[in-house]
Inverse folding.
């Protein structure tokens, strides 16, 4: 199966330079890609799933609200269900980034003690170790374990799709027929926002996070029914997104807002 690779000039470089010794991760970006490589650097680009950990009170169990995290712009970008926000990282961690814009704070459910403790611990991390697709963040008071979320292979989502709904956290909006998206095996992407046609090339920034290169959106011709739809679709197309595929649906989760687009196979 094939995934889309992005040119180095578009790569999001997010690294933690450790205050102590750590194992350098495979594939850490070199200076030619806007980063540095030395024996203190761990590459933490991508989306990570929280596996478990512990703090001074014992093991942390987040099975009720599984956490995923991206490291961008000096933040740990946390998602669980419809709860999503940027948690600033410890300033002791040196972050080098050319990343996406910070997403806004949003909250729609009450987290338990373990979920809250895990999220708050991110801000206190002073060191990290990575071996392959496994990552550990820690300080003297806690340890958090993560696994890299694999990107969805392009051939899983190739085809024509119709926008069936828009989500903002736990709020849903129905969409009139019109907005579409077509993904081709060569990575080209095209469709309609409901008000304008668009086209470009799907590019992977980091594992699981995508952008559209050479994005072109035509002149908007909107009816009242499509004004809000067009605005939300543009937000996702222009800002980057996570691709998810499950239960026959294609989901684009915006990297710069709380917008999620849910597509179904075109008929």
């Amino acid at each position: 199966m094939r995934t889309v690779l992005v040119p180095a000039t578009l790569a999001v470089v997010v690294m933690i330079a450790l205050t102590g010794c750590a194992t350098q991760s495979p594939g850490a970006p070199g200076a030619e890609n806007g980063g540095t490589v030395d024996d203190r650097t761990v590459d933490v680009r991508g989306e990570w799933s929280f596996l478990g950990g512990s703090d001074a009170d014992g093991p942390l169990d987040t099975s009720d609200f599984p956490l995923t995290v991206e490291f961008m712009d000096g933040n740990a970008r946390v998602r669980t269900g419809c709860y999503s926000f940027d948690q600033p990282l410890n300033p002791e961690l040196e972050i080098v980034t050319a990343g996406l814009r910070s997403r806004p704070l949003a909250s729609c459910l009450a987290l338990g003690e373990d979920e809250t403790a895990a999220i708050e611990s991110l801000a206190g991390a002073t060191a990290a170790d990575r071996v392959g697709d496994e990552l550990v963040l820690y300080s003297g008071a806690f340890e958090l374990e993560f696994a890299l979320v694999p990107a969805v292979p392009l051939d899983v989502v190739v085809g024509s799709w119709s926008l069936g709904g828009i989500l903002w956290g736990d709020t849903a909006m129905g969409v009139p027929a019109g907005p579409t998206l077509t993904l081709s095996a060569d990575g080209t992407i095209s469709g309609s926002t409901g008000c304008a046609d668009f086209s470009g090339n799907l590019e992977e920034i980091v594992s699981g996070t995508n952008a559209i290169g050479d994005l072109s959106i035509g002149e908007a011709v909107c009816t009242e029914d499509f004004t809000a739809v067009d605005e939300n679709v543009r937000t996702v197309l222009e800002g980057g997104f996570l691709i998810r595929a499950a239960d026959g649906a294609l989901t684009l989760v915006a990297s710069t807002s709380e917008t999620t687009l849910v597509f179904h196979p075109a008929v």
Q: What stands out?
A: Residues 54 and 131 are 19 Å apart (CA to CA). Residues 227-239 form the longest helix (13 residues). Residues 1-39 have pLDDT under 50 and may be disordered. The chain has two domains: 8-148, 154-265.
